[in-house]
Amino acid sequence: MNYEYFYSIIVLGISGFISLAIGIKNNNKKILAGFTALVLIVSFILILLGTKNYDVLTMNFNTFDDYWALIFIASTLLIIIPSMNDIKGRYDVFYALILFMTLSMLIAAFTYNLIVLFVSFEGVSVITYVLVAFNRTRRNLEGSLKYFIISTLGTSFNILGISFFYLSTKTFDLFSVNKIFFNKALLLALVFIIIGFGFKLAIFPMQQWAIDTYDGAPNSISAFLSTGGKVLAYMILLKILYLGFVHDYNYVFYFFAILGILTMTYGNLSALSQNNLKRIFAYSSVAQAGYMVLVFALIGFSYFPANVIPRSTFIRFGIASAMFYAVVYIFMQGGAYIAMNLIKKDKIMIEDLDGLSRKSRLSALSLWIFMLSLTGIPLTGGFLAKYFLFFSLIVGGLWWLAIIAILNSVISVFYYFRIILNSYVSEASESDNEFNLAPSVRYPLYVTALITIALGVSFFIYTYLIGLATI
Q: Which helix (H) or strand (E) holds 273?
């Protein structure tokens, strides 16, 4: 047996303490950011090299879980350099917390035990409470407090859900669930788990905390919360629903068809009336969660007896769509929040973008790419992600859900293009806005935009993911 996976986890844990030790001698943000990035890259490589398809204790190592682990590392790696611009002081503590948080995410990626999933997820949540409040401004503290209160409520529902799940199935291991067993306690477990992780995913009507928290947090932390943190909750819910509740296929389908429609519609309509840029992106994140949970509805629908298409076809297409959407979402939504470092203000309004294209054409172009991708315009990652998702829904017989999702994408055009118009059309001579165009702000933006474009022409990735889409 090779131990690359364990080395990856151990490296992250030890490096967190090393980061604290480095900070005692030299609390230099460049050194600490570089060290953290190096550790994350090493962990990424170790996971790629790891031996596949074996179990150790509660850990399961296969290519499906590898994919999610690599996404989680990418989501934290994405914010390392941008965080140098909006985190003030105690860089040793900040980057140590980033490493410990990534460690918890990897544990969640490689386990199918509900207790371990819950503990690792809460480990990430506790760290993010601190990160949101890290600069200790009034806005940061207010956002962190709201996040803590609502997240605690979500945790309570998760505990209840897991408890009822165990009472019904007599196991915490998702692979050991009796697939034909059903009772009312299991239905309660499903409802509580949907509510608990619904808070974390910010799906309607459990989304308002996310709007305030993303707005109040430092830009790099907003980028992580709206991408890596949300995708972690999404992956956990995917594992639980697919392995633990296939016998409740009708409830899974109806719950998530309704929640998906309400979430994406609420997010898009609410964003239309906003002028606060970070709140626009927060509502955009809510809408994107609405698209993503449609995969859960598709998985539930695939178990309906009337379906003539093989069940495995539904599930593979749906899970592969979820996997591709997750990686694209991290870069396009994360890039949008990272772009906020261009503006030298805490409360960022849409008019603060006026004149950006005259001051830095490439920065404005990068922001434009993120907006086009979130809209779903061709040649961007967002287009392919939505195309594969809608294709899966149509193949699965849920064409009406695909139409509703497409109409929601049309609605989003109006507020995403407002952002493009403000950054491109407005004259710099008419604006007194100042922009932070330091290399540590611009270059991460350029790289993220290039990745978003590259994902827009990477059709082969989806084909590859269909082969991985087996839990």
A: none
Q: Give the residue from 342, 295, 349, 316 showing the smallest Cα distance to 446.
A: 342
- Under 8 Å between Cβ of 190 and 251: yes
Of the candidates 369, 392, 394, 395, which has an alpha carbon nearest to the alpha carbon of residue 382? 369
Domain extents for the chain? 1-111, 112-468
- Between CA 250 and CA 152 the distance in angstroms is 29
> What backbone phi and psi angles, to 5 degrees, belong to 60?
-125, 125
Closest CA relative to residue 471, chosen from 254, 246, 304, 167: 246
Which pLDDT band holds residue 429 (cuts at 50, 70, 90)? very low
Residue 291 token pair:
């698209």
pLDDT single digits (tens) 378-427: 989 999 999 999 988 988 888 899 999 999 999 999 999 888 888 776 55
For 284, the 3-state DSSP assignment is: helix
Residues forming a β-bridge with 435: 343
- Which positions ≥6 away from 371 have C-beta within 8 Å? 336, 416, 417, 419, 420
Q: In the structure encoding, which two tokens stand for residue 272, read together?
A: 């239309």
**pTM, full prediction:** 0.91
**Can you read off the two tokens belonging to residue 150?**
């609502």
Alpha carbons 310 and 397: distance in angstroms, whole number: 12
Rg value, the chain, Cα: 21
Q: Could you give the CA distance from residue 466 to residue 383 in angstroms, rounded to a whole number?
A: 18
CA contacts within 13 A on the Cβ side of 225 = 36
Q: Which residues of 48-60 are buried (b: 16+ CB within 10 A; e: fewer)?
A: eebeeeeeeebbb
19 within 8 A of 36, measured Cβ to Cβ = yes
Q: Find all residues with CB under 8 Å of 21, minimum gap 6, and list them.
A: none
Tokens of 18: 């090393």
- Give the CA distances from residue 266 to residues 91, 97, 407, in Å, rounded to whole numbers and listed in that order: 38, 34, 13
94 Cβ neighbours under 8 A, 6+ residues apart: 32, 83, 87, 131, 134
Q: How many angstroms separate the CA atoms of 371 and 213, rounded?
A: 21
pLDDT of amino acid 246? 67
* Helices H / strands E in the chain, number of each: 21, 2
| Residue (of 251, 434, 278) closest to 348 by Cα position | 278
**Measured distance CA(259)–CA(403) in Å, rounded:** 16
Measured in degrees and rounded to the nearest 5, phi and psi for residue 432 equal -100, 10
pLDDT in tens, 150-197: 888 889 999 999 999 888 888 888 877 766 556 777 888 888 999 999
Give the residue from 290, 250, 255, 251 showing the smallest Cα distance to 269: 290
Instruction: Select from 331, 132, 138, 160 the least CA-distant residue to 231.
Output: 331
Residue 56: in which H helix or E strand, if any? strand 54-56
